[in-house]
Amino acid sequence: MRVTGVERGTTPSGDEFSLLEIEMAQRYRHAVGSADPFYRGLEDGVLRATECPECGSTWFPPRRFCDAHLSETRWYDLPGTGRIVAATRVHSPPPFGGIEVPYILASIRLDGVDGGITHRVACDEIPERGTVVAVRFSNRQPAHPLLRIAFAVEEVTA
Amino acid sequence: MLVVGVGMTPFVGFRADASVRDMVVEAARAALLDAGTRAGSVDMGVAAYESDHFNRQMSLGHILQDSVGLVGKPTLRVEGGGATGALAIRTAVMAIASGSARSVLVFGGETNGKSVDRATATEILAMSADFEWETPVFGTFAAPYALMITEHMRRYGTTAEQFAEIAVKNRRIALDNPDGHKGMSITVEDVRASAPLSDPYRLFDASLLSDGAAAVLLSTREWAERYSSTFRERPPVAVLGSGSSTDHPRLSDRSDELFPHFAAKRRAARDAYRMAGIDDPAHEIDVAEVYDSFSGAELQAYEDLGLCQVGEGGPAAAEGRFDLGGQVWVNTSGGLLGRGSAVGATGIAQAVEVTRQLRGEVSGARAVPDAKLGITDTHAGVGSLAVVNVFGRTP
Predict the structure, then answer these.
(1) Cα B30 from Cα B217, distance rounded (Å)
(2) Which residues of B fall within a CB distance of 8 Å from A107?
(3) Measured between alpha carbons, how far is A127 from A85 in angstroms, rounded to an integer?
(4) Is residue A3 classed as helix, strand or coil in its secondary structure?
């Protein structure tokens, strides 16, 4: 932390004030934790979810333990397809960057799992509810590992 | 259980002359003076604030406890995103109901305004989405709110012009609120012509980031009779109910059926109304402070709070059913869109507004005639945690 300046002034109602200009920078080593197999899967070109060995409940985003049985879940691969629930055109970039604005963001119900993801869809117009999409993997080093993927429109259902 | 004192600072874009603790002290002092009592008589403090990052202070709760003159008494810091202030009031209600305290001063504040530059504010706010699964793909809450209202529009025929009416209404009302951050006289066309955030939302559909603080003093009737010198001077206001519930924070985890709705808000309202004995909220409630983080969120809340039928929020907004003089007067303060939002203070400021309405202390066009029953509504995220508190005039 450091103080880079002091500003003094008077408010419109006549109160005098002083402001310290302060800079702080935070750096972290952020553990992805139990999502590690998911992140490794992104580099292998596969979306991974988890399943309870006792009741068959499935999770995406993956959970390490079954809510109902508290048993350790197992990992499996998803087909990578899904269906759009709702979509929007976003006009500001995400905080890690890596996406040009404007871009299409959609809440996607994924096939093969009870769950979904909100992520970018590579298209120009806002797709309608029910639009089928499929995951695409990029080989470029992304601004954030989660941006290694985006979705592409497969077919439009009425 | 009674509201014996209320106070707040005006909400503004930037308080160059006050730190967050100065503002909380101003609000707490106003609430104590309003109650006609002193901190020394109060049993407990509850501090409400959301963000160490915005306030530049960890463990702010017990620092504020000292600043407002409650050192030596128990304290608790409460955080619940956008619902922080209302959750702090609910916590005080539980403390008094449990017998742990006879009186609780609830104080909250936040410096969400221009003490941080825009880029820093955007970065901090992005951390209130799910940092593991959402923050990397969208940076502001405009996006998930836009996804919800998009489905509401598809399903019920709601239009962007209908929720723009709410942005116009709340900014117009805030012009008459001396505590308001930014009242404006604008039109639906102005809203639609403002900068796009996340379609269909535009800049004027989004609420304000403010500096501000608010406080309320709650107590038992016995405590009020003994320690509040102003208690007998005006109609007492009671806390009649409080409800809270939760929902999946990530939209993609929610069911298709409830995607455009705030399910946690429905449950919180149901429980709060049951506790307060409200059977027909649309006809019994006189005044409501509703969480208008985005204009469309107020429209959705009309439905989820039971003030109109599901799917009716759009037409209701367009015909002014919840404007001043309407069936229920919604956001007589100007709401987050006009009065502004300093997160930790917001739910408390709503209670300040409703209490003043129930006491008949609000003047001019904002004054609800003979208001008997009021609610406050806030939520965190896009409805992942909801709190509804009910207040009423009591004999």
Answers:
(1) 10
(2) 147, 251-252, 259
(3) 10
(4) strand
Residues of B in contact with A102 (CB under 8 A): 196
Tokens (6 digits) for B199: 């379609």
In chain B, residues under CATH classification 3.40.47.10 are 2-116+210-233, 140-207+240-393
User: What does B237-294 look like in DSSP terms, one character per residue?
Assistant: EEEEEEEEEE--SSGGGS-TTTTTS-HHHHHHHHHHHHHHT-S-HHHH--EEE---SB
Q: A123 pLDDT band (50/70/90 cuts)?
A: very high
ipTM above 0.85, yes or no: yes
A92 vs B154: CB contact, 8 Å cut-off?
Answer: no
User: Rounded to whole angstroms, how far apart are CA atoms A107 and A151?
Assistant: 11
Q: Give residue limits of the domains in chain A.
A: 33-155
Q: How far is residue B214 from each of residues A126, B30, B181, B228, measured CA to CA in Å? A: 41, 9, 14, 19
CB contact under 8 A, A91 and B253: no
H or E element that contains B148: helix B142-156
Residue (of B199, B194, B39) closest to A87 by Cα position: B199
Q: How many CA atoms lie within 13 A of A135 on its CB side?
A: 27
Indicate the burial class of B118 (C-beta count within 10 angstroms; 0-12, 13-18, 19 or more): exposed
Strand (E) or helix (H) holding A133: strand A132-137
Q: Which residues pair with B331 in a beta bridge?
A: none
Please state the CATH superfamily assignment of the domain spanning residues B140-207+240-393 in this structure.
Thiolase/Chalcone synthase (3.40.47.10)
Give how far Cα B27 sits from Cα of A29, B193, B214, Å: 39, 37, 5
DSSP conformational letter for B365: G
The answer to whether A86 contacts B123, with C-beta atoms less than 8 Å apart, is no
Q: What is the pLDDT of residue B122?
A: 87
What is the rounded average pLDDT of the residues B88-102?
A: 98
* DSSP 8-state symbol, B223: H
Which amino acid type is present at position B73? K
Q: Using one digit for the tens of pLDDT, what is the confidence trace for B238-292?
A: 999 999 999 999 999 999 999 999 999 999 999 999 999 999 999 999 999 999 9
Which residues does B contribute to its contact with A (CB < 8 Å)?
A: 16-17, 56, 122-123, 126, 132-140, 142-144, 146-148, 150-151, 154, 195-200, 250-253, 256, 259-260
**What does the DSSP 8-state code read for residue B83?**
T
Tens of pLDDT, residue by residue over B45-90, are 999 999 999 999 999 999 999 999 999 999 999 999 999 999 999 9
What CATH code would you report for B2-116+210-233?
3.40.47.10
Mean per-residue pLDDT of chain B: 97
